[in-house]
């Protein structure tokens, strides 16, 4: 387990963590009040704090905004969690203060994201900590991944025979999977699907998204033509399952899927498709025919050195329950249906 993962686990337990001199506690698991609350610029903008314009014009994603305390743990959670906005609408007045350790603060917020928590932390420089991490160790978690194959097995599936291959990064993080279906020629541009995990859609059959139908339609085509399915453990566009459920709550309040992520304090899309490129390289694949409606996946693979010979559309799964969701993908995210 990497140092960043160890620190993230400590935050999940409610323990303080020291990031190069700055001791922090995750707001979501904090049991005591804190002196200063650190938020992402996305959440600060949603709260309409005074410095949101500067944050937006500087494109200060990942940087921190500080609110002066002290704040009780419950009050801080109400500020950090936008699903509480209707129940606790009269927040504030807020007073922003300079972020004394901006690099450490940004790293601490990244640790909260790695932990699957809301990206909000108390800064308590004098807190006793048992776990310490450096900024470089947090950055190492996000560095361009070097994945290696750690297991493979024959896996017959409903669509036909297959081989499942497991990958692990030496830098830490979850394992990712590749499923080879049919008899793909990996030396030629191979039909490939990048699919981010979606427990609600892939396993439970949720109709809020088109993930389940896309997964199974892709598997059928890959099996018929011979191809590769990359199954990336990046739930909810990289924000994690619990935060995805919070995003669903916000969508039920009228926010679209992109704005919901930002109100939670995340970027619109936190996924890292360099993982897919690293997996393809490990498989010996240099060029793909990419089965996707998302042009960002094409750009990301090409930027990571994988040639995309063709974008192959995958338009399935539209219904009344996900019409607004798909309209957002089409209009705001630029997906091509």
Mind explaining what this structure looks like?
With 337 residues, this protein is of the alpha/beta class. It has two domains: 3-141, no CATH class; 144-234 and 271-331, Rossmann fold, CATH 3.40.50.10990. 36% of the residues lie in helices and 23% in strands. It is built from 14 helices and 14 strands. It has helices at 3-13, 41-46, 52-57, 73-80, 102-114, 135-142, 199-203, 211-225, 235-238, 241-252, 257-263, 274-283, 295-303, 323-331; strands at residues 17-19, 22-26, 34-40, 64-71, 96-97, 120-123, 131-133, 147-154, 162-169, 176-181, 190-196, 227-232, 287-291, 307-312. Strands 5-4-3-6-2-1-7 form a seven-stranded mixed β-sheet. The longest helix has 15 residues, at 211-225. The two termini are 40 Å apart.
Quick overview of this protein structure:
By secondary structure, the protein is an alpha/beta fold. It is built from 14 helices and 14 strands.
Which key features would you list for this structure?
337 residues, alpha/beta, Rossmann fold, 2 domains, 7-stranded mixed sheet
Specify the structural class. alpha/beta
CATH topology of the largest domain: Rossmann fold
Strand content: 15-25%
> How many discrete structural domains?
2
> Going across the major beta sheet, what is the strand order?
5-4-3-6-2-1-7
What is the CATH H-level superfamily of the largest domain? GTP cyclohydrolase II
Q: What can be said about the biggest beta sheet?
A: 7 strands, mixed
How many helices? 14
Shape assignment? globular
Question: What top-tier CATH class of the largest domain fits best?
Answer: Alpha Beta
| Helix amount | 25-40%
CATH architecture of the largest domain: 3-Layer(aba) Sandwich
